[in-house]
């Protein structure tokens, strides 16, 4: 009980620091995931000309694909130490910032738009890409879209990931995201509480893992969870994800559910943004 109270008070103290504070970096940012792509690296991009195959050939596999609209996300997560001077409390804090190169493609799979962006604390990679696409005049799905079943593509399987609960005391400072990864490895998407994500996947045995993301580099241990799915052509799977407190910290859990168990919960959620 005392441990749980200390964790809540730690987050509360950080909230107080951010409420009225100034900060400045103490170190240069260090890339801890992904890679940064500067102007020289993308000088080859030509609107309506460069095919997606050349983009992947030159820049490598993106961290995440967005399918509607078709966007490749090349992201980098940066770890940096800041000194935060607040009215109530001051101190050194490790923060994580994210930045991305977005490359959007037209119906012919040729480059349509591209640009760099800083990712806000409360945005997922996909959400930031959709906000960027909307600002660029592209058509994007509505935010908070209600549940709709995905038609299973021929020869593939569909997996619904959904998250009914996040048991972490953010106190409104930020959101905890659960990043979903496949065994390729690549990111499949991210979820907040009360969201779902439907993904069409190739058949076979797949190891799926989930990893929590929090912009503040917390001293609280956060454990990754995983599950193995046996995907058959035409099959539909439901995977429940939770982020809960454990004896040693917090753990991301995954459990496959039956259609009868999952559908009542998933139908009340919105599509991940």
Descriptive account of the structure:
The protein is an alpha+beta fold and 273 residues long. It has two domains: 2-135, no CATH class; 157-271, Immunoglobulin-like. Helix content is 16%, strand content 45%. It contains four helices and 16 strands. The chain has helices at 2-19, 52-59, 125-135, 259-266; strands at 21-25, 30-34, 64-66, 71-86, 90-105, 111-119, 157-166, 177-182, 186-191, 195-201, 204-213, 221-223, 225-231, 236-245, 249-257, 270-271. Strands 1, 2, 3, 4, 5 and 6 form a six-stranded antiparallel β-sheet that branches. It has a six-stranded mixed β-sheet with strand order 12-15-14-7-10-16. Strands 9-8-11-13 form a four-stranded antiparallel β-sheet, with no helix packed on it. The longest helix has 18 residues, at 2-19. The protein is globular and about 50 Å long.
């Amino acid at each position: 009980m005392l441990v749980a109270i200390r964790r809540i008070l730690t987050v509360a103290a950080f909230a107080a620091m951010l409420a009225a504070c100034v900060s400045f970096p103490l170190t240069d940012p260090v890339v801890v995931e992904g890679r940064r792509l500067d102007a020289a690296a993308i000088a080859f991009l030509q609107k309506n000309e460069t095919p997606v195959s050349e983009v992947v050939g030159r820049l490598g596999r993106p961290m995440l694909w967005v399918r509607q609209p078709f966007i490749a996300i090349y992201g980098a997560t940066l770890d940096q130490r800041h000194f935060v001077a607040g009215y109530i409390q001051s101190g050194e804090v490790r923060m994580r910032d994210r930045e991305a190169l977005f490359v959007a493609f037209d119906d012919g799979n040729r480059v349509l738009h591209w640009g760099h962006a800083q990712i806000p604390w409360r945005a997922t990679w996909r959400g930031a890409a959709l906000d960027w696409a909307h600002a660029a005049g592209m058509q994007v799905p509505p935010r908070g879209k209600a549940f709709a079943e995905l038609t299973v593509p021929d020869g593939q399987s569909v997996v619904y990931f959904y998250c009914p609960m996040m048991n972490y005391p953010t106190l409104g400072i930020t959101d905890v995201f659960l990043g979903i990864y496949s065994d390729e490895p690549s990111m499949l998407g991210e979820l907040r509480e009360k969201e779902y994500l439907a993904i069409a996947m190739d058949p076979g045995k797949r190891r799926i893992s989930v990893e929590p993301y929090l912009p503040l580099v917390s001293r609280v241990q956060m454990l990754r969870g995983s599950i193995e799915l046996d995907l058959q052509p035409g099959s539909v799977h439901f995977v429940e994800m939770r982020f809960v407190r454990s004896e040693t910290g917090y753990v991301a859990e995954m459990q496959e559910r039956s259609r009868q168990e999952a559908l009542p919960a998933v139908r009340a959620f919105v599509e991940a943004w």
